[in-house]
Specification:
It contains six helices and nine strands. With 200 residues, it is an alpha/beta fold. Helices cover 36% and strands 23% of the residues. The protein starts with 10 loop residues before the first helix and ends with a strand. A seven-stranded mixed sheet has the order 3-2-1-4-5-9-8, with helices on both faces. A two-stranded parallel ribbon has the order 6-7. Pfam families: DUF938. It comes from Simiduia agarivorans (strain DSM 21679 / JCM 13881 / BCRC 17597 / SA1). This is Methylase. InterPro entries: DUF938 (IPR010342), SAM-dependent_MTases_sf (IPR029063).
Length: 200
């Protein structure tokens, strides 16, 4: 079997990459350097960097995911796509000069709540005035699920780890406000997900 066939693969990334790109093409049109928090398999990074060549796309994740990200980057070498940075939101963030946008997909419900708090605080410190933060994933509104599938997903998440779970939109907005981020958009996405946008 070719080593390329052993790359990590997420069907969810494959399914949602074009709907997300539809919005990023507009939201990041005037951005120059993006930090992706939690690059996972690396599939999103490859797809978005290829479609948005004006952006310098910096991948990042916990060290255990770096090998898979590097495999994707090796198969799709792009001049604007950068190798994974070690980023644990609960620890010291890497120094990145000139980052004016942050993207993160399907991370807030995987992290424990204190880590979500650190995510927003770190982004608030990192972004310059006018910088953009885009967060993709499932959300609850008013403490209520938006679909039966999201409720089932939340039960599954908490069975894996009680610290996980779909986050409340209102609580995320409160974290953003504390971090100096102003809400700009809340976009409905396929499969009962949302794409939230804040501006520094």
């Amino acid at each position: 079997m070719d080593s390329a066939d052993l790359k990590p693969f997420s069907q969810a990334c494959q399914n949602n990459r074009d709907p997300i790109l539809h919005h990023l093409s507009r939201l990041f049109a005037h951005s120059q350097r993006v930090l992706e928090v939690g690059s996972g398999t690396g599939q999103h990074a490859v797809h978005f960097a290829k479609a948005l060549p004006h952006l310098q796309w910096h991948t990042s994740d916990l060290e255990e995911h770096h090998e898979g990200i590097r495999q994707w980057l090796a198969e799709y070498p792009l001049p604007n796509l950068h190798p994974p940075l070690l980023l644990n939101v609960d620890d010291t963030w890497p120094v990145l000069n000139g980052v004016d946008a942050v993207f993160s997909a399907n991370t807030a419900h995987i992290m424990a709540w204190p880590s979500v708090q650190n995510l927003f605080a770190g982004i608030g410190r990192l972004l310059p005035e006018g910088g953009c933060f885009v967060l993709y994933g499932p959300m609850n509104y008013g403490g209520q699920y938006t679909s039966e599938s999201n409720e089932r997903f939340d039960v599954w998440l908490k069975a894996q780890d009680p610290a996980r779970g779909i986050r409340d939109f209102e609580k995320l907005q409160a974290l953003a406000q504390q971090a100096g981020l102003t809400p700009e958009e809340d976009n409905p996405m396929p499969a009962n997900n949302r794409l939230l946008v804040w501006r520094k």
